[in-house]
Amino acid sequence: MEDVDVVIVGAGSAGLSAAKVLRTAGLNFKLLEATDRIGGRAWTSSEHFGVPFDIGCAWLHAADRNPYFPEAQAAGWTMHHHDMNIDHLYYRGRKASEEEEASVKAADASLAELMEGHSGGDDRLGALLAKGRASRAAATFCGPMDFGSDEDEISIADFKAAADLEPNYFTREGFGALVARFGADVPVQLSTPVRRIEWDGLGVVCVTDRGTLKARAVIVTASPAVLAFDEIVFSPALPDAHMSAFFDLPMGMLTKLPLEIRGTRLGLKPFDDLLVERTARHDIYFLCFPFDLDLMVGFIGGDFAWEMSAAGEAAGVDFATNRLCEILGNDTRRHVGRSMMTNWGAERYVRGAYAAARPGRAEARATLMQPVAERIFFAGEHVAGPLIQTCGGARLSGEAVARQVAAQLTGR
Ligand SMILES: Cc1cc2nc3c(=O)[nH]c(=O)nc-3n(C[C@H](O)[C@H](O)[C@H](O)COP(=O)(O)OP(=O)(O)OC[C@H]3O[C@@H](n4cnc5c(N)ncnc54)[C@H](O)[C@@H]3O)c2cc1C
Question: What's the CATH fold of domain 85-163+254-346?
Fold first, then answer.
């Protein structure tokens, strides 16, 4: 392989955007992707339901700051503003009363206030939550379903640093398709995992199964879990602070359980939000019939989602179907058609949904924003400032880091 100015590891949202910035800056680069497609966690597929379905990211969060949003609009894609309010709440098999629903909204608002007023040390988010059912339902949304982690595994400081993601939009054509469209003109070498990065001499040497190439700098966009698992060996080893930071940013999990529902809307409207709370954990949220498609998309998150990954797809689909039958009647079962379960934990080059700092370890993100020896840079959703965990944030991170690299290499 020919030597270049910069190697970029990973052709997800961050890697693709970094490549575009380097190209504009007149630097030559090589973008190496381990898998056989671009997009990473942005991945739309019609394989399962015959319509575009996002296996990974789906909501265009923070649309007013999300560079993908104007691009989807300009392309004339079908957009839907999603308010993300719980429309239907069930406690086990029972529909919650209006008062109960109101108390969940109040619990949600009080969490925001508690967080605003929190000035103590960094603790578990769970420490801020009041006891009781309403508070649990609110915690489900902000913990497992949003942050991908249970509230006792989330750092308050990390949670606070994440921006409010309103306004949220969906696109019918798929967020993954939007990222693929964005990256379509970027040259990428697919199926080329980077195994080793040597940085003991000048610049870096990247070792892959298809050869070795030298560069003046490398931008690594692999998730912190991929790096914690030593999928890329650094030689010499990275500083301890960086290695610890990978472990302090474990991947949360969000698993989708889409069920095709044929011949009925079950009394629900397109884009209704339905939450089924269990008494302890194991809650499930359904996004109902997006774009009036025959789909109810179940979501489980946090520890429960990791457990379901081990139990397998059949167990996951049964769980989602049984919850629907429990609340809407057993007849629902005969309307269920095709189904699937996403499994991001088993994607070797991702290993989870997105990173959430351990309580007391929120500074790990800032650590990874520091380059090593002015030649190893990190970009991606895990270092995306207020838009952490999001695909738009990953893109902005890739752009910002590439600008930093370009300034350093060109002296401009
Ligand atoms: C189920 C789920 C739902 C989500 N929902 C939303 C949502 O609604 N809205 C939203 O904004 N975000 C959402 N996200 C998060 C969003 O998808 C990610 O934040 C974003 O796509 C991450 O982009 P990235 O470039 O940082 O990382 P990635 O997309 O992971 O890209 C990194 C790339 O690096 C490659 N790679 C790894 N190791 C190597 C190696 N050794 N050599 C070469 N290549 C390598 C990987 O294959 C991958 O393609 C969701 C994520 C999941 C999993």
Answer: Polyamine Oxidase; Chain A, domain 2 (3.90.660)
Q: So what's the pLDDT on residue 108?
A: 85
Domain chopping of the chain, boundaries:
4-44+175-250+352-410, 85-163+254-346
Superfamily (CATH) of domain 4-44+175-250+352-410: FAD/NAD(P)-binding domain (3.50.50.60)
350 C-alpha vs ligand 1 centroid, how far in Å? 7
Residue with tokens 């489900």: 140
pTM: 0.97
Q: What is the pLDDT of residue 285?
A: 96
Query: What's the pLDDT at 278?
Result: 82
Residue 38 Cα: closest atom of ligand 1: 49
- Cis peptide leading into 167, omega within 30 of 0? yes
Question: According to the model, what pLDDT value does residue 111 have?
Answer: 84
Q: Are 299 and 287 in contact (CB under 8 A)?
A: yes
Share of the chain above pLDDT 90, in %: 86
For ligand 1, residues with CB inside 6 Å are: 9-15, 32-35, 40-42, 56-59, 61, 193-194, 221-223, 226, 231-232, 254, 256, 342, 344, 349-350, 353-354, 380-381, 389-392, 394
Look at residues 72, 355, 87, 330 and name the one whose alpha carbon lies nearest to residue 222: 355
Q: How far apart are CA 261 and CA 72, in angstroms?
A: 28
Instruction: Please identify every stretch of the chain with a pLDDT value under 50, giving residue numbers as ranges.
Output: none
